[in-house]
């Protein structure tokens, strides 16, 4: 699964944020620790 690979392979050290863009997969992103960003767009953010 792409989000699992992003979280496992691209996580710290060195990477501060990962910003997946989605129209309809917010629930899936949330399962991997992502939350809505402060900007009310379609982005979700995970801050390491």
Largest sheet: 3 strands, antiparallel
The percent of residues in helical segments reads: 25-40%
- Number of individual domains: 1
Strand content: 15-25%
Stretches where pLDDT falls below 50 for ≥5 residues? none
Q: How far is the first residue's CA from the last residue's CA?
A: 20 Å
Strand adjacency order, main sheet = 1-3-2
The tally of strands reads: 3
Indicate the mean pLDDT. 76
Query: So how many helices?
Result: 2
Helix and strand arrangement:
Blueprint: H1 2-9, E1 17-18, H2 26-31, E2 35-36, E3 44-47
Question: How would you portray this structure in words?
Answer:
- This protein has 48 residues and is α+β, with helices and mostly antiparallel strands.
- The chain has one domain (2-47).
- The protein is built from 2 helices and 3 strands, in the order αβαββ.
- The longest helix is centred in the first third of the chain and has 8 residues, at 2-9.
- The protein starts with a helix and ends with a strand.
């Amino acid at each position: 699964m792409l989000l699992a690979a992003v979280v496992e392979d691209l996580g710290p050290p060195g990477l501060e944020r990962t910003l997946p863009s989605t129209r309809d997969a917010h629930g899936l992103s949330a399962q991997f620790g992502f939350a809505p960003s402060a900007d009310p767009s379609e982005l979700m953010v995970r801050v390491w």
